[in-house]
Fold these 2 entries.
Entry 1:
Amino acid sequence: MNSTRQTVIAGNWKMHKLRREAQEFCRHLLANLEEKPAASVILYPSFPLLADVATALDDPRVSVGGQDIHPAASGAHTGDVSGPQLIDAGCSWVLCGHSERRADHCESDELVARKAEAALQHGLTPMICVGETAAQREAGQTFEVLDRQLAAVFSQDFGEFALAYEPVWAIGSGLSATPELAQEVHAFLRQRLSDLVGPEQATWVPILYGGSVKPENAAGLIVQPDIDGFLIGGASLDPDKFLAIIRQAAPAA
Ligand code: PEP
């Protein structure tokens, strides 16, 4: 395994928190985070919180990202947010293709690909989310679905990115994938990425697991050879739970 592979712990706040709660979270996080955490830490607050959180977290240990991006740089797109606006608010990352956006906003694989391209074009690192539904898993379609989601986005010479495997049935359900199941899928994803973006980039790209990660199940998942960190929803809302997960993250090398 490549010793330069980065461990990444990311919190997706979804449509939670008001400005004052976000400020308190940031203060608590910075006060209790190790001086040199073993992982890169990212927070994805909702759009109205971004600038406040980026200002509160003006600290090299934590980065900030948007939860979505429009493919265009500006224009008549009510309710959307562009790459330059995310950069202006202090973001360096952006989520692309989270399953809640794929479901709630009918985002296709092709649209996710255009969002990822826009992110790279504007200097943001995309964290691209893929994952199968319960029905797809039960029908034996998991690898076919993941293959389709990857093939729509990735090709040779793709820029820097992270991938998040988030089985839809595990998100917010309390039913995390077992370490063995997650490792099997992550190994498949890394192999497919190797075909799509090339073996070198596939070796070092961080592949995060997401789906009901909490302090109680993080240790078993993070020791898997192809799990390089987590994208965390519910448990990232509580700074002590988020910190407890960060502390379990050892470098993936
Ligand atoms: C998510 O929405 O990205 C997620 C993983 O949520 P949870 O941790 O709550 O399952």
Entry 2:
Amino acid sequence: MLLNKNIIIGVTAGIAAYKSAYLVRLLITAGANVKVIMTPSAVNFITPLTLSTLSKNPVLIQFQNDTNGQWNNHVELGLWADAIIIAPASANTISKMANGICDNLLLATYLSARCKVYIAPAMDLDMYQHPATIENLKRLKSFGNSIINPGTGELASGLFGEGRMAEPAEIKSHLLKSLSKQNYFYCKKVMVTAGPTYEAIDPVRFIGNHSSAKMGFAIAEEFANQGAEVTLICGPNACKTINPTIKRIDITSAEELYHAAINVFKTTDIAILSAAVADYKPATVAIKKIKKTSETKSIELVPTKDTLEALGQLKKTNQLLIGFALETDNELENAKAKIKKKNLDFIVLNSLNDAGAGFKTDTNKITIINKNNKIIKFELKSKVDVAKDILDVIKKDLKA
Ligand code: CTP
């Protein structure tokens, strides 16, 4: 589950900093990409060289990189991270985090981050039990941060009590537990189709459509970000996948899409078909470029294979099949008819009559209809947010 996850480990000034080295090692071994940010005083407790060697990345301490004068961009770091773990988190750093103080790179990155933040306090028992620390930790919890409670034992001061930083293995298992809750689709096998298909007329011409594939790519990303193993079958497009775990299969024609999908569907839990597949293709494909003449020409078209309908016939009870419907008129009735005809669990309807919906745009306005004809309408949103809505509907269905 940690494979290719981007994790920032924040190291603050405390004796327990020696355990951070082992934590970095554990996360790297599990396949995560790790970057370490230290507070300036933390370097008195463990060397940046140890942490950079183990993390395979330069350790970041200051806003400006001493060697090349470049800015260590805390905003980029915050957005890069899938998780931030502050271990050890000193009383001083905890207090600054709770109050929005931003006087070092780690604190600026914390304030810029959108991901979950895990805090492993480490301090002497009286400091840990001080009402100020208790209040600060409560405050951090209320921000949505996760506190990894310290253990009880002998402390660096020689006193005995609560305040020892959790062991690296405990921090790792806390992280895994938390991620599996966030990763609702962990281990689910998901197939997404996206983009147009091109049906060849001759070696240089084809019948296609305006699909940009953006909606399908957004769905694939969202599933992958929530832990699913995604196979994305896509027609010609200019999109790029971001999540490295997405397996991409490029196809050109409806026939190629059909064969790829039938094959992948055998091991799929959830299939969502957003591709704008050509319904017809030329009956024959000219081997050489068709030359221009003054005569009128016509192309005989024959139907393509309907992949979604074929999957509807193959579908087993433990598989979820979701189609898209792009309509220009009589939208709801047409979409409902497709649910029946293609044996779907849901259909996602978008109408070309809605401004900002459909092909090429970065936004979409959808209505989801389930097999019992329950209708849920959504506002116009970015395709990324539309993808989140679609996944939420699927989650509710799986829980029901
Ligand atoms: N679809 C498919 N294979 C096809 C045609 C469509 O898998 N040969 C899928 C699309 O990916 C979409 C759904 O079927 O999920 C509905 O596509 P749409 O074009 O809206 O409907 P059609 O079934 O093609 O019917 P019509 O064009 O008459 O509306």
